[in-house]
Amino acid sequence: MECRFQIFQDNTWKDCALLTLLNPAAGDPRTSCIFEYDLDYAFEPGAEPVSLHFPVTAEMQKLDQWPAFIFDLIPQGSGRTYLLGQLALNDGPTADFPLMCAGAFGPIGRVRVVEAVQYYANHIARHDGGKPLHGFSLEEIIGRGDAFNERMLIHSMLAAGSLGVQGAAPKYLLTTDHEGKWHADGALPDQQAFEHFIVKRPRGKAPNDFKVLKNEASYMKVARAMGLRTSGELRYQDDTLFIPRFDRLVKDNQVLRLHQESVASIAGIVGFETTPSQFNLLKAICSVVDDKLTETIEFLKRDVLNLAMRNTDNHARNTAVQKNDGYVRLTPLFDFAPMYLDPAGIPRAARWYHPDTNKELQHWRDILATLELPDEERNQIRLELYRFGHQLTALEHHMQEAGIDDDIVAFLRPHIAVQIQQLQSLDEEHHGAN
Ligand SMILES: Nc1ncnc2c1ncn2[C@@H]1O[C@H](COP(=O)(O)OP(=O)(O)OP(=O)(O)O)[C@@H](O)[C@H]1O
Ligand SMILES: [Mg+2]
User: Fold this and answer.
1) Nearest alpha carbon, ligand 1 atom 25
2) Of 17, 65, 207, 353, whose Cβ has the fewest other Cβ atoms within 10 Å?
3) What is the rounded CA–CA span in Å between residue 308 and residue 418?
């Protein structure tokens, strides 16, 4: 079983690579496969990799497990459920590869699967090939009337959620045109695209599902106020969250698709069920980004806020890197929300497990001491975190300003206090060390 990849470069989709599974029936990602870039692509000047973990080479690569980047392309959540029905497959790891070959026709980032593009084209042709394009108003999206749902089903196969965009919550990839009408992303030609969004609905029907989504926009405001890297404003309206996409840029009537890849992919994590060590994730980030110190500080501050604001869902696909103009860095923050409220009970996913003892470290002092860094950089980071500890004293104020629910603010108070206390003690450490 095989699949072909295309990459968006120079304003066009180019064939670039091939993956052949050697033992497809098992559906076990820990079986061998062959990954190879197309030879003519590999010799093109400026050829870009499909994954930063797999630089472009003319060599054929025999791997003893599936390449981790494909797990960024396998449909998850309600989009997965929908496609399983379409393909008449039972859920489980054996479904992963066929799901990717049907669902990854227009995912986040700039890599897509040719088989999925064909599947999508057939699907459209079966349903409403040739019908004129017509966009939706914001009211129609929010109301999710029949016409909108029908169009989503046909054009993005998004009846219940989204494909090609991962995560548990139901989502649509929608694009506005120059008249302000909304379209299924795959249905709108690039020349007509104005702005790209992820439109997210609550994960379930419990009151807390709504509360988590409602507060996600305010959480992002707080992150911005605290100086973390963020992108456009999130907007919450009638149980629907509108998230501007940062993997697409519109310029001169062209759409630029930026490379985006999860930290799970960069760290070589195969499969979905993992509780990785933050040390490994940070190491993986540092192996690909341009400015290691800046990105390390950003990653650490994000984790301070994860702990202070109980965003427990910090799994390795909730952090990603992007490449823009040849420069690799962490993407702006995303999926930052009061996940402790989730009715499913989500424990913190990635933790600081000591690389040798595997014991979880819970104090920033110990984490800092364990990072593999020259001491000069460690001190710089220590100072940044110490200052961040001072900034945290304004966190409650920022949360109120951003409109976060009062009960969340009250619940977080002790968690914030722990972070302030730990970070402020880093100064003593510093003086003590000298
Ligand atoms: N603003 C954005 N621009 C581009 N890509 C994004 C943006 N926000 C999220 N993504 C991508 O979309 C995926 C799904 O989004 P998100 O993580 O918010 O959904 P979710 O359903 O809440 O996920 P989870 O299952 O982790 O709770 C992310 O993993 C990320 O790859
Ligand atoms: Mg997510």
Assistant:
1) 167
2) 207
3) 8
Give, to the nearest 10 degrees, the angle between helix 77-87 and helix 93-103: 90
> Using a 6 Å cutoff on CB, does residue 167 contact ligand 1?
yes
Is residue 246 within 6 Å of ligand 1 at its C-beta?
A: yes
- Quote the ligand 1 centre to 278 CA distance (angstroms): 19
Burial (CB < 10 A; 0-12, 13-18, 19+), residue 253, is exposed
Atom of ligand 1 nearest to the CA of 247: 4
Tell me, using a 6 A CB cutoff, whether residue 169 lines ligand 1. yes
pLDDT of residue 175: 92
**Taking Cα atoms as reference points, which of 219, 205, 400 lies closest to residue 311?**
219
Q: Extract the tokens encoding 44.
A: 């093109």
Query: Which of left, alpha, beta for 432 (phi over 0: left; psi -120 to 50: alpha)?
Result: alpha
For residue 167, give the ligand nearest its CA: 1
- List the structure tokens of 78: 């309600």
CB 247 within 8 A of CB 258: yes
On whether the CB atoms of residues 217 and 236 are closer than 8 A, the answer is yes
Burial 70-104 (b: 16+ CB within 10 A, else e): bbbbbbbbbbbebbbeeeeeeeeeebbbbbbbbbb
Residue with CA at minimum distance from ligand 1 atom 26: 167
CA of 353 to the centre of ligand 2 (A): 22
219 Cβ below 6 A of ligand 1: no
Query: What are the pLDDT digits (tens) for 294-329?
Result: 999 999 999 999 999 999 999 999 999 999 999 999
Residues whose CB falls within 8 Å of the CB of residue 385, separated by 6 or more in sequence, listed in order:
297, 300, 301, 304, 364, 368, 423, 426
Sheet with 61-63, strands from edge to edge, namely 61-63, 33-37, 12-21, 2-9, 111-113
pTM for the model = 0.94
Q: How confident is the model at residue 167 (pLDDT cuts 50, 70, 90)?
A: low
| Nearest protein CA to atom 10 of ligand 1, as residue | 334
Radius of gyration of the chain (CA): 22
pLDDT digits (tens, 9 = 90+) for 199-209: 888 888 899 99
Q: Domains (ranges, CATH) in the chain?
A: 2-201 (no CATH), 261-433 (1.10.1070.20)
Choose one of 72, 73, 80, 166 to mutate for the ligand 1 pocket test, by most ligand atoms within 8 angstroms of C-beta.
166
